[in-house]
Request: fold
Amino acid sequence: MKELHWIAVDWGTTHLRAWAMGADGRVLAEAQSDEGMGRLAREAFEGALLRLVDPWIAGRPAPVPVVAGGMVGARQGWVEAPYRAVPCPPVAPGTLVPAPVNDPRLAVGIVPGLMQAAPPDVMRGEEVQIAGALALAPDFDGAICLPGTHSKWAQLSAGEVVSFQTQMTGEMFALLSTQSVLRHGLADGWDEAAFDGGVAEGAARPERLLSHLFRIRAEGLLQGLPGAAARARLSGLLIGAEIASARPWWLGLPVLLIGAGPLTALYARALVAEGVTARALDATDCTLAGLMLAAGATIGVTE
Amino acid sequence: MKELHWIAVDWGTTHLRAWAMGADGRVLAEAQSDEGMGRLAREAFEGALLRLVDPWIAGRPAPVPVVAGGMVGARQGWVEAPYRAVPCPPVAPGTLVPAPVNDPRLAVGIVPGLMQAAPPDVMRGEEVQIAGALALAPDFDGAICLPGTHSKWAQLSAGEVVSFQTQMTGEMFALLSTQSVLRHGLADGWDEAAFDGGVAEGAARPERLLSHLFRIRAEGLLQGLPGAAARARLSGLLIGAEIASARPWWLGLPVLLIGAGPLTALYARALVAEGVTARALDATDCTLAGLMLAAGATIGVTE
Reply:
């Protein structure tokens, strides 16, 4: 691939995505697999990457820069990329950590995650998206929310992540909807009014989450709460509780949402119920813009 | 077994326990198995019971009364025993629901659970223990807490359950400690100071549960929080959040705890941190006393 300047990689616990990038931030090709960090031993990362990018780098005489963000830099990843401490810019020049490779056509650098000493917190991957969001919305000051398995709320000021907080909302939804007693009363489908009711209940009394959850089961048994409504209510309860307990993070500030479509839409809807109109940015756009920043700052291949 | 007057049965989702009872509430024999309601089809209940009690009823000419409480009376159980609505006494005369049997030596009655219409809630099995607690502590008025997979808080007045609330604390601990990202940082063992710290944090800010939980992971990564301390902290966070959000249930009232040893001790310890000294009753004592009430009131075999 002649026009290839570098390769952008988003490498999480359960997924691997790669983009062949041109000179001007143009995406030439894209590939993905389920070879996430969670199922790879240290020596298996290079092979997993090559399975995606080999067609792009065939016949290259010199190493192609690869910039990767996410759990690939965890202690159990390809190589540990030590956390940078906030307050700091989400990505910064000269901080990529080189990963060991055998193939001379690859030069891999990993974006370090961020840590906060007190209260203790960590992120890996979201810092790339936050950097990208700042590139797409320059001079943004306020709160950034990244819904997901482990939702993040970050406070941004003058281009720096001042502080951040993680909530286990997404993982809790997955566990409760598939592994807990609540699964018996849940079904596919969606009920917007039930979601709104859950948000209202969760946000009004976030401290009652453990009893609100069981009420879903009780309403199923006593009042025949339909499965789709139960599922939407569970989602609303958790998101409502998250947003209410994150109030100090967004109160009086502009809010930017980064995430995949449907989940981000739910957060936007729940925030409106709290009187907040959030601007939403596409997660992939943010990831690519952030990786481009990381690549440009340290490898100098983008303009 | 000549002295056998009746058989007491505690039949939950995952366990089955039976006691051979004499005339005066004396326990003549005891047996248990893991044939809980969760793994039995409707037609398999009688056989599971007989595997335990057959030696006791060998050669009996007339049916032996069997009184069973717990999930055995659920819709998916042996026979559905419809909920009784609070406010009401925890068990009442004439409410046992007969289960269909083929063996002429058995006459099985199932104790109905309790329901609350608003807010919707249900219990099955705990009503037996509450009845037993009232038998062991006559004239008790106040709050009864039953720690467990689904913790119950009940308000008792003049021998009636006035209202009750379920919290998913125990199931949440099980899910989080074995299925969530937190499992990576947990190990066997216990750390009392970490438990106390978790209780204090959880009780002070129960609305922040979703972020407090992730902090356990972050402290493991950043500060090397030992696995035993992480496990104790998780338990403390959940129990602290439960007790704080149940404050309207116990504030200014005497509190009675019913439960298995170690878990009840943790709740007692956490309640002391909130300024409450709870009296504790053994769960099995309460179960037997409650089943005896149910049996005596309706079958008339105890004196």
In short: Residues 297-303 of chain B have pLDDT under 50 and may be disordered.
